[in-house]
């Protein structure tokens, strides 16, 4: 028979570092039942350490940087870690309330000679073109930061955030699947001067919190 999804109990065993056997395997001597691990294995992220070098990320001339990626893909954390301290004006729909206000804030910052980072999901060409047009009108380049986290990885990140942080609105599965349905991969033909691929790299504080780290690398359904 073809492999099936692992039962929740087996994921719990993996999280606890225990061997998992079905009753048939333990008492009847059956061969181990085949199964596939979930599409996203958080343990794989323990090997991911490389982000975009700061010299490649930050420009010394005014520009627009536009994020693209699932809710929970690490966009805001990345932007606030690397770009806001470098002097980029921060534009975010959750803060401003609408894309129209985001466009106005972007245009105003460019008029002051400031670089701008637009921290929204921007799933399709229509949503991205609003800010490409802002950059074009100000005669500055527009680059895209495409955060590569998959739906399964973003879902895991959102669950981890729900368990470890307070004061934010939880991201539902409906929101994640809606983003996936709308998503069209960004392309240079939209007017971007560059598209940078940004992998998700987990951070657990400085110094790292061992409990948060251990929790993150567990299966969220286990």
From TrEMBL:
Gene Ontology MF, one: polynucleotide 3'-phosphatase activity
Q: Which GO terms describe its biological process?
A: DNA repair
SUPFAM superfamilies xrefs: P-loop containing nucleoside triphosphate hydrolases (SSF52540)
The protein's name:
Bifunctional polynucleotide phosphatase/kinase
Any one annotated GO CC term: nucleus
Q: Give a single Pfam family match.
A: AAA_33
Domain of life, per lineage: Eukaryota
High-level lineage: Eukaryota, Metazoa, Chordata, Craniata, Vertebrata
InterPro entries assigned to the protein according to its UniProt record, in alphabetical order: P-loop_NTPase (IPR027417)
